[in-house]
Amino acid sequence: xxxxxxxxxxxxxxxxxxxxxxxxxxxxxxxxxxxxxxxxxxxxxxxxxxxxxxxxxxxxxxxxxxxxxxxxxxxxxxxxxxxxxxxxxxxxxxxxxxxxxxxxxxxxxxxxxxxxxxxxxxxxxxxxxxxxxxxxxxxxxxxxxxxxxxxxxxxxxxxxxxxxxxxxxxxxxxxxxxxxxxxxxxxxxxxxxxxxxxxxxxxxxxxxxxxxxxxxxxxxxxxxxxxxxxxxxxxxxxxxxxxxxxxxxxxxxxxxxxxxxxxxxxxxxxxxxxxxxxxxxxxxxxxxxxxxxxxxxxxxxxxxxxxxxxxxxxxxxxxxxxxxxxxxxxxxxxxxxxxxxxxxxxxxxxxxxxxxxxxxxxxxxxxxxxxxxxxxxxxxxxxxxxxxxxxxxxxxxxxxxxxxxxxxxxxxxxxxxxxxxxxxxxxxxxxxxxxxxxxxxxxxxxxxxxxxxxxxxxxxxxxxxxxxxxxxxxxxxxxxxxxxxxxxxxxxxxxxxxxxxxxxxxxxxxxxxxxxxxxxxxxxxxxxxxxxxxxxxxxxxxxxxxxxxxxxxxxxxxxxxxxxxxxxxxxxxxxxxxxxxxxxxxxxxxxxxxxxxxxxxxxxxxxxxx
Length: 610
Ligand code: AGP
Fold this sequence. Notes:
alpha/beta, eight-stranded antiparallel sheet, seven-stranded antiparallel sheet, 27 strands, binds 2-deoxy-2-amino glucitol-6-phosphate
């Protein structure tokens, strides 16, 4: 899941524009960074460094004058993070340079074929076959574009490519198959990127490229798009981005993650804005109106998602079943794709994704493309692939999420799933009105948890030295336990497991010892007594317990070593408040360990390869 950027324009500011774009895309991968730019010479100038974009800036030194550049920030798939494996990759005489996000699945056979033609490879990457293959076809093609099209015809897998050649210094090419690619159109400039955050500083006018499309952009700001599968030109109107650069910076916060945790109250408000009318007990989801008729016949929902979105889906399962009475099954998208389960036309597939670009979730949607089933989406990133490939859906409106660890998106996803449950239910359900009213009251309650940040910080410092953690919960608390464990894992690198509390006796209890603390979700619910018993079982083995409980619960004081209290709320909405407390805990544990919370090792924000 790399980030690519390409800039072509009349002004000599391509290198700075690409470096700024790469910095905005760094959440997609930060193993190495590289840039190629036209500098009037016969060969293309290239610089690449291991590590963050800043290392590349330092190595480039003073600002380079060029009107055309392509750049890359890498999340290694093939080959370790070295300068040799960093992008851009190029042909032997450096007249062609390529940056790539995705995986060329048939690169080995292409490489063998090219080696037989005398080509010498200098990296372990799949991407390096592209500039050599273009070079190979350029020997016999009439134009560079023809050689590029012949190359695209040979590539299998997923790619967003940025391509430049010293043969056409005033032209930039970019092509897409599965991996996201956006074209920004400005006055006298074009900029292509993996997502709009690298573009919005230059223009708000964008074109989202579809699969099997490439663009030829020129320095006067004009462009042509072509469908290279059907060899036909494509004309497309530009769309306007509806958010600006300001939302994508940290403000006074030390990290995006902390900023995004503190956005919980606003995220709750934005997710319900214009969708909830408490006084008339109404929920209005405009994004589902176009499929209102089909929705009436839905008798089963299959939710597909990955990571934190999958755990939000598990909370949605309880909400939709309990409030709308429709059976729900939640599946990890990476497994769903390869299952042969029967699908009836009255089943809807609901894909949940923050980025809207997760390859496994896209593949799950593609799998049922011809099944005649309704494909719905709960997505945060506006205009993303999943948003465009679903029949209808609901945006989360959480704003861009920059930190790799998803926080506010989880809050927004669960809130939207609660709205969908209400939307699908007949308003007679006894939970309808209380839930509607509670959604309205939650922002204040989330603020009350954020006010406990200092106490949660002390708790995190107390537990930051442990190497193993267990998270347990029952019913709505179970997905919370899974999500809490994921948050701690991905930013503090501590081994943490989420478990249904009732499963403890069936194995995990064996792990319990004084150095293996447990985080117990023990908020008010009809199952609280049962959770108390699980805590007792752990205490009986000298296990330490941190509990999240509802304010006013005095019993828990006698059971747990430490307690985080959340304001009183419904069992159904407790996950939204519990999540904020768990996010703060994991954030402060990672800070205590001196780790880079926004850019945890080995991860990337948007997983665009399977
Ligand atoms: C969560 O903190 C992780 N970043 C990851 O598990 C993420 O939730 C997963 O990759 C799904 O991403 P999506 O919501 O953008 O599809």
